[in-house]
Each structure stands twice: as C-alpha cells, then as structure tokens.
Write a structure and sequence with these properties.
Helix content is about 55%, strand content about 10%. The protein contains 3 helices and 2 strands. It has helices at about 25-30, 35-50, 70-100; strands at about 55-60, 65-70. A two-stranded antiparallel ribbon has the order 1-2. Strand 1 and strand 2 (about 65-70) form a beta hairpin. It is flat, with a radius of gyration of 27 Å.
Length: about 100
Amino acid sequence: MSEPEARPPVDHQGTERAEPRSRSFTDVLRQINARMVLGALAAVALIVFIAQNTDETRVNFLGWDWDLPVFLLLLITIVLSVVCTEMVGWYMGRRRRNRSR
C-alpha cells in the first residue's frame, strides 16, 4: 500500500499554497470571550475584598480559639459550603440512581 499524496494547504478561496499570516491585535481581541472577562473581574473583586477585610477576628469553634483575618474566615466558609453542597448532591444522585434500578 502506498501513502496518500500530501496536498498543499488551501485557503478559504480555494487557491493552493496559502501562506500563514501573522495574527493581528484585533484577531487576538476577538478570541477573548465572556468567561475570560468575568474571570478577570472576579479576580479584581477578590483582591479588593481581601484588601478591605484584613482586620483580625476571634473564632471559637468546639473549644478551639483562633485569630483569623475576616477575608480568610469568609473564604474558608465559602469553600466548605461548596464542598458540603457537592457532597450532598453526589450522595442524592447516587441514591436516586440506585433506587431506579
């Protein structure tokens, strides 16, 4: 068996041997999507939040005492909430799948 003959690259007009063009600034801007913009805005909001909430607060939990910055306490609370919510969702979905069998 012989390998198929390699064809030269074709551009959109159908002419052969299209030269690779360099990407312009506007081409790069077109590729920036809403997710990237929202991610950048969220990062800026998080930095502002951290900068404004650096005061320490006392935390008492199950006999333990900590001094934590407010932003760290809130971020830990958010992360634990998301983890617990995902675990409950996973468990309920697993239960639902087992009952449907």
